[in-house]
Amino acid sequence: MTEWMKLLSLTKPVIQAPMAGGLVTPVLAAAVSNEGALGSLASGYLSSDMLEKQIVDMQQLTDGAFQVNVFVPESRKEPDEGNIQTWKNRIPFAEQAPPFSSEEEEWEDFHKKISIILKHNVRACSFTFGIPPDETIQALKKNGCCLIGTATVPQEAIMLEERGMDIIVLQGSEAGGHRGSFLPVSGEAALGLMSLIPQAADAVSVPVIAAGGIADRRGVQAAHCLGAQGVQVGTPFLMCEQCEASETYKGELKRARGTDTRLTSLFSGKPARGIVNQWMKEQQAEEANALPYPLQNTLTKPMRKQAAREKDSGYMSLWAGQSVGMLNGTADVKSLLAELCRT
Amino acid sequence: MTEWMKLLSLTKPVIQAPMAGGLVTPVLAAAVSNEGALGSLASGYLSSDMLEKQIVDMQQLTDGAFQVNVFVPESRKEPDEGNIQTWKNRIPFAEQAPPFSSEEEEWEDFHKKISIILKHNVRACSFTFGIPPDETIQALKKNGCCLIGTATVPQEAIMLEERGMDIIVLQGSEAGGHRGSFLPVSGEAALGLMSLIPQAADAVSVPVIAAGGIADRRGVQAAHCLGAQGVQVGTPFLMCEQCEASETYKGELKRARGTDTRLTSLFSGKPARGIVNQWMKEQQAEEANALPYPLQNTLTKPMRKQAAREKDSGYMSLWAGQSVGMLNGTADVKSLLAELCRT
């Protein structure tokens, strides 16, 4: 057992990936924590009130450690009004989208969420899309909270360690969902775990965790050989009966092969890996012109909601990693974790 | 020791990647074979006379097994004359390029090379960019030649096994140089080894070999955990004193980090991973309009030659995998293989 596992009283070196957008509920995350792995709540698209409710529920469902993941707001460029109008015309139901949040509002939301995490003494907190401000880091550390950063290149890992992160999740090009990059990295330069883990492990002294394309014990053992002290697993948890992903989404996950995914910015404005569907095909030529995050995300929200209601996988975001071809059907958290940790 | 190693009398489960374009000489490949790994000659850009000379030299330098890699010609689409003219105007020194070879000429060259491989009883033959014709496969098998195919997705691996390949090299998105795909796979759908190896290993029963981003023992051991019976290593051999890569190229390899590479079709018309340089930056917007292989390759040949003469890395093809950030400086074949196989 390694130091980071002791710190969080874990018996399994596995983090359930914090998948935002209603995919993770306290039921799923608590099932993970109750097996001795690290369950994760995803605050990214939750209101702070909803986050607080989830934390309270979570603490009733498990005595184990869990983390809350928080998105770090980014500085915005001035949006191009003409391009916004173009996308408003192009995206179905965009007229029903809520107003864009300002950068100031995002920071306010960020700080509210941090206060809730502090108030409820959450054991671990992870960050995506950047490095939190120093006062946040100090406040959480003072509270005994374990800090987890997300890196996609060795340079990001070095920066996260310098700023005080206790653990670094290394997200390989194989990973489903949003890329957590905060330094510019193009899709075709995205590092596969086979290259990323040893290079990042050599560059930092804190424990590194491998994320991306890991679906069974083979990936866990390989990550260990490469220098990771644990793994973060996402897509395989989506197929668990404890996961609230829709049947439409689960059906696509079951059907898809590893080569059916690609990176796209068409849903949110930030590159994320998902199963190629109608929306991605229709707008492929406009990929490079997507609005910056979170504007594109705000405008596609009603389209995605409508698609979910109509069970139309063509216009939902079907986030999935390259291990999607290894999923055989419904699993449950206990058996998935047992497979991952089988020696 | 596994069956494929016994078949080729190897003591190390490592294949030196057949890197075309003058990078591999009999001196390098024989040094590999003499250490009990599989040395490889790359016939892709050699005349059949030159290939024969290299095989004869090789057989004088080693008693160990080696392979010859052969490119499988592809059926061409009718080229767009307007686009050819555009690139002739755009590519420096394109007016000095030799005439385009026809598909017929490429097949003639392919068959000549196979005859030479048969004549000299080469122990193994690998193929890139496709599946060779059945009569070629049968002739080589009759001669006791071990056949190695190259796959980038599980479906290609299945097809290669069905057509009689004895071993399949799985090329992950991390790999440097040309992608060996023969089914359509976009760059952002390219599978990392963490996902590719288990999915392909489950899909075929012949041994699979992992290629891409492997630079030290950690990668070799990880590949093994994922289900590979060996590894194919390219970029690290370029830094060996036995490698004929120019000092300019070696300097760029030493300097580059893993994130400095990307896939580009701007040199040859086929996606290949290399260190981003001036030519790739200048023409980035035209990436999607590159001429089909081998036309783009033919037109950039004088530019690359001139750049090599002038030691100008901006216009050379600087093929490199994502492990390039792990290279520390000049190595030699013996110490590199010892590191890869260290337990």
Automatic annotation (TrEMBL), chains A, B:
Keywords: Detoxification, Flavoprotein, FMN, Monooxygenase, Oxidoreductase
Function comment: Nitronate monooxygenase that uses molecular oxygen to catalyze the oxidative denitrification of alkyl nitronates. Acts on propionate 3-nitronate (P3N), the presumed physiological substrate. Probably functions in the detoxification of P3N, a metabolic poison produced by plants and fungi as a defense mechanism.
PANTHER family tied to this protein: NITRONATE MONOOXYGENASE-RELATED
Key word Thylakoid present: no
Ligase in keyword set: no
Entry GO MF terms: monooxygenase activity
Span of the signal peptide: none
Similarity remark: Belongs to the nitronate monooxygenase family. NMO class I subfamily.
Protein name stated in the entry: Probable nitronate monooxygenase
Annotated Pfam families: NMO
Organism expressing this protein natively: Bacillus vallismortis
InterPro entries for the chain: Aldolase_TIM, NMO
